[in-house]
Amino acid sequence: MTVGARDLELACSARELYGTELHRQRQLARMSLDRLSDVVNYSKTHLHGVETGERLPLPPISEKLDVAFGTGELFQGLWGVVRREHTPRRFDHCLELEAKAERIQAYGSTLVPGLLQTKAYMRAMFRRSNPTATPKKIDNLVEKRLSRQEVLWGDNPPDYWAVLDEGVLRRPVGGPSTMYEQLAALLPLVDTGRTTIQIIPFEAEEYAGMNGTFILITAPDNSTTAYQEDGGSGETFDDRETVTRRMREYDRMKACALSPKQSAALIEAAMEKFKPCEPPQI
After folding, report:
1. For residue range 75-119, what is the model confidence (pLDDT) as tens digits?
2. Report field, pTM of the whole predicted structure over 0.85
3. Spatial separation of the C-alpha atoms in residues 191 and 169, rounded to whole Å
4. Which of 29, 182, 202, 262 is 20 to 30 Å from the Cα of 96, by its Cα?
C-alpha cells in the first residue's frame, strides 16, 4: 500500500506534512509502529503523535528515521521546515499529563515550581514577564496557575517530589514579604506522605542538569514524559533516550541535595532574611 501525492497535498502545515510522509514511508516499508519504535528507540505513543501532527519531531528522531527508511536526509530536511514554522506551545501538553499523573518530579534552578507557588509569587512573576499586560490579564494567568495546583489536593493526588537549587530560596521574587510567605508555604510540604522537597546547597558546587528546568511526569501505566524548558520555550519528550538521561540527572540531583529535615532548616534560615521587621515598641 502506498500513499500518493494527492494525500500529501492534504497536509495544511509543515508538521502535518512531516507526519504524512512518515506514515507513507512506514507503509512502503511495511513496518508497524511497534516495529518502528524498536528500530528508532522512540515510544509508539510518540511516533503516533508525530504521524498525526500532534507532536513535534524533535532531534534526533529525523536522523533515525532517515536511517531506518534509507531516505537520505529527507526527514532532516522536513524538520528544518517544521522548525521554521513552529511556535512553541509551552506547557500545553505538560498540563494534560500533570492532570493524570501518578508521580511528578520537578527541578527548579531559579524559581519555585508552579505547583508550589503562592498567589503573590505568581503575580510577581507574571507582572515581570508580561510588563504590558492589563491587571485583568494578570488575574487570569494567576487563576489558571492556581487551578493547576488542584492536582496536588484532589482525591487521588500524585506523589510530588521537588528538588530546588538554594538560589531559589535567596532570590526575593516580589519583595521580602512575598518571598517570606512563599518560603513559609514550602515548609509544610517538605516531608509528607505525598510531597517531598529537597534543597541543593551552594556547597554542592556544580551538578548535572543545573543549567535548566525540567519536570518528569509518570503516568498510571508507568510511562514517563520529560518536560524541559530553556530560554523561554519548552517541550515534552517521551523518547527513551531523553527520559532516561533526565531520570539519571534527577537521581544525581537528589544525591547532591540535603535531606528533607536539613532542607527545612535551610528554608527557615533563608526566611530570616525576608522576615518582616517588628514594629517599634512605644
Report:
1. 999 988 877 665 445 466 677 788 889 999 999 999 999 999 999
2. no
3. 17
4. 182
